[in-house]
Amino acid sequence: MVIDIDQPGTEGGHPSNLAPSVKKVLAQLVDAHIGPSWAGINPQSGKAQLIWLIDPVYADESGKSRHMDLLAATSRTLGQLLDHDPNFAHRFSRNPFYTGKSPTAYRWYFQHKNVVHLGIFLRQLRDMAGLDQHEKTPQRFDSGRDLINAAKARREQAEAFKALAQDVESELGDRLDKYDQELIDGVRVLWITPPTTNAHGEHVPGTAARDETAFRHALKTGHRLRQSGQRLKDAPIIDAYEHAYKIAQAHGAAGRAEDMPPAADRLTMARRVRGYVTTSTSPVYKAHSTSEKATSSERKALATLGRRGGKKTAERLKTDPNGDYAQAQRQKLAEANKRRKLAGNETRARVLAVYAAELAQTGKALTGAAIGRELGITRKTANAHLRALRVVGLID
């Protein structure tokens, strides 16, 4: 292991020519019996290279392993103590056995030939630097079953809290907006230049980002419509856009005339908002549960126990296909298939309702892609339901 010391000292090439801070740390390392095996000193600048003999460190084909991580941590800690050059490769050094007559050749001093164990070496370095030692995360469960039950309980708690939070947001969102002091008539105005007060105490109006304010408000309205189970029609989204634009114009025009986008552009905006809302994977309201997250070891234990449970289940079904366990599993499967069928029928009914409503209002049939955006399902699913409805004669 090579550490490149970039702190300049004085000319001479002797250990006494090293920088004072480097000499102090080296003295501490020697006193702790973890000093370098070789010390090479630049005769012109007083910089140095230090070499420690360590146990072999191996890596896989990708160049990574736990041993490589340990080597990197040891090099980093030791380098910080000696204020090393972090860009040095830590693999190459000047030749300690060079016998030429170059005036710039490093002067090498052999100290010992002890081989350092990296784990012990790193602990000693951290004690010397006053750093915390690495400690494994304590296991909080007595058995794998307790761990699985705790993980299930946390997941159920998080799901219940998330559902409750979304219900509260959808029901009280509009009423709570009037208590938010940053909102103006329910609109959060985004500013290019925020309003200020001049030296005479007079209010100086700011410059509002009208288009961005209107679009953000329309997007928030679309998310709230979806959370409350209402249809994402163009009219309420366009109304929200126009309302927010007028609020921004009234409070932050800064001498600009109103420049509301034309109706065609507002209609395109509404469809874009609807697409963002229906394809969004992150909820508007993000609930923060107070429950703790599972550690890496716990997730691995869950995965391992899950695999073993699957093997045991397959073994039971194979050895006793007509037993109580197999019958109970078949019953659960039948109930799950029944629920899936009911859910599919409910989605098909929604597809039929949207298709019929649009046909009655405009005289034009919606495509599978449009229905998918409206209901938040994929185009493939919407087209499958449309084909099934055509087969039974409910639509043309």
UniProtKB/TrEMBL annotation:
Q: Which UniProt keywords apply?
A: Plasmid
**Short name of one Pfam family:** Replicase
InterPro entries membership: Plasmid_replicase_bac
Q: What is this protein called?
A: RepA protein
**Native species of this protein?**
Corynebacterium phocae
